[in-house]
Write a structure and sequence with these properties.
The protein is mainly β. The protein is about 0% helix and about 40% strand. It comes from Hemibagrus guttatus.
Length: about 350
């Protein structure tokens, strides 16, 4: 007398995240009957979990299983008297479904802040949270109050070989961000708590060249401008370097016509005094934040030409005098922005 052994493996009839329904499929056997007892033996394919359950029906639900886990299931049959229980029949291999993640990533925080990147860290988690071996982790962030669409970025994290950390790059300096982590598997989605962070300041952008306006006079220039389109922080000051580069008067000495002016961050104009008429000045304007100066904006402006000035004459003695002529010494006129082309003398009879 041979103990009974099923010829075929059990049949899978339903699958869940924590259960498997099977048909014993044990009507055809090798060995001898009659069958007085049936048991289902199951174990994890990878791991050490094992259990043996008696059954009294043709179908059976194996419960309390782990999600997304492969099991090997066999049926054992028992006959009375000699021989008893036979060997396990052919095994059925079946995998449970994934379950919805237990919860979203926890303890999300910012560990490093720079002008154009922030580094996040969170509490490590593994299969006991994901409840599925295939899952994705994304960081979702948006600039607060701008109305721009949310940006999604895949995070490389497997819970075993990588640190629970991610750096978001290519951000805009001095911007308020809303950030969260999203854990997804095929059965559901769980999010972390949303956190808020502000990126660090950076050097500002260029002062808009089309915003620079110069009102020119004979000996002064009034310069006005707007703050950079991209301040990337709080503008603390402006630096304006100026230098005379040319004059309509080629003999004019421009070597002392240069300097530098510092303006407060809330000032957007300056009056340059003591300039030479008819001279072209170059202005280099830079804005600064706490991180330093941004790129320069360069413009030029030319003062107006002024009429030449004549020196004063007191009681001058003539050099030579006849009945019909008088010779006097003319003092040179002072050019004011252009060469003196002519000098005229007015003679008045007293």
């Amino acid at each position: 007398m041979q103990p009974p052994v099923p010829i075929a493996p059990p049949q899978l009839t339903a699958v869940g995240a924590t259960y498997l329904w099977i048909q014993l499929n044990a009507n055809s056997i090798n060995g001898d009957g009659p069958i007085i007892g049936r048991e289902v033996e199951y174990r994890t394919v990878s791991g050490t979990m094992y259990d043996l359950q008696p059954v009294d029906k043709a179908s059976h639900k194996i419960g309390h299983l782990a999600p997304d886990t492969e099991y090997e299931i066999s049926v054992l049959l028992t006959r009375p008297l000699d021989g008893g229980t036979g060997a396990p029949g052919p095994p059925l291999r079946a995998r449970t479904k994934c379950a919805e993640p237990m919860h979203g990533p926890r303890e999300l925080k910012v560990v490093d802040i720079k002008a154009r990147q922030v580094t996040l860290r969170w509490e490590p988690f593994g299969y006991n949270v994901t409840r599925c071996h295939n899952y994705s982790l994304t960081v979702e962030y948006s600039a607060r109050g701008t109305g721009k669409e949310e940006t999604q970025e895949e995070v490389t994290y497997d819970g075993k070989n990588s640190a629970p950390q991610h750096t978001i790059h290519n951000l805009t300096p001095f911007t308020n961000l809303s950030v969260k982590l999203v854990l997804r598997n095929r059965e559901g989605v769980k999010e972390s708590t949303e956190i808020h962070v502000q990126t660090d300041e950076d050097v500002p952008g260029e002062v808009p060249l089309d915003s620079i306006q110069a009102s020119v006079y004979e000996e002064k220039i009034i310069l006005k401008w707007r703050e950079p389109a991209h301040t990337y922080g709080v503008i603390t000051q402006y630096e304006i370097s100026y230098k005379a580069v040319s004059s309509f008067d080629p003999v004019l000495d421009l070597s002392n016509q240069s300097g530098k002016v510092i303006k407060l961050g809330n000032e957007t104009s300056h009056v340059f005094l003591g300039l030479y008429p008819g001279s072209t000045y170059s202005f280099t304007l830079r804005a600064s934040t706490a991180k330093g100066y941004g790129p320069p904006a360069i413009t030029q402006a030319t003062t107006k030409i002024s009429a030449p000035s004549m020196p004063t004459y007191d009681q001058e003695t003539s050099l030579n005098q006849t009945d019909s002529t008088v010779t006097v010494l003319l003092k040179p006129a002072q050019s004011r922005g252009a060469p003196v082309r002519s000098v005229s003398a007015n003679i008045q009879r007293l």
